[in-house]
Structure prediction request, 231 residues.
Amino acid sequence: MNGPHVPERMRGPLAALVAAGAGAAYVLAVRPRLLLWGATTQEAAGPLAGDEFVPTPRMQSTRAVTIAAPVSGVWPWLVQMGAGRGGMYSYDWLENAAGLGIHSADRIHPELQQLKVGDTVALSPDGGLSVRLLQSPTVLGLGGTIDLRTRRMSPDGVPPAGPRVEVGWTFVLRPVGSHASRLVSRTRYDYSPLAAGLVLRALLEPAQFLMERRMLLGIRNRAEGRKTRRI
Prediction:
């Protein structure tokens, strides 16, 4: 049975109304859950070390996971992150389809445990973020700039003059009793020009949620000694 006939003149306004409704539903119901996945109200609202990397962000997410392992058992997985190192513990196949060359480790590599402020944590062959804060074994803070013209990620403190995104990404580990820990990940962005925000919110936020959620669960599974699946 065919549905009700919609006059030609009404199809444009109706489509616009449906699109507006879908956009409103995403902004009001879906987006907050993506940005605050796993985080408590206190974690999401409170300040974190590393917030100063992007002091006035136009975009921010705070995500968290509880891990049945002490802080000392989680920290080594964070320290060895990065392309050409321990990987990102996320969807390797998806990252490599984009040419990022990521291979996530399933064990702690002693040779990758040396990290210091000023080092670069590569996120792709085109660059990465600089270690700006390192408080072993509780805080790892990264920062850098994405040049929107070249899409290259630079850890340098001097941003390009053109369209760009300033990035701050901090991981904070807190003990939960003597045998568990809480891993909180906060990302803050500022960008120029303002129009770039339309694209970033539509594309970057959902993609980052997908990959970061998997990363946090990947770290949890590894620190807890669970068998990881290559997916």
Notes: Confidence is low (pLDDT under 50) at residues 10-29. The chain has two domains: 8-37, 38-223.
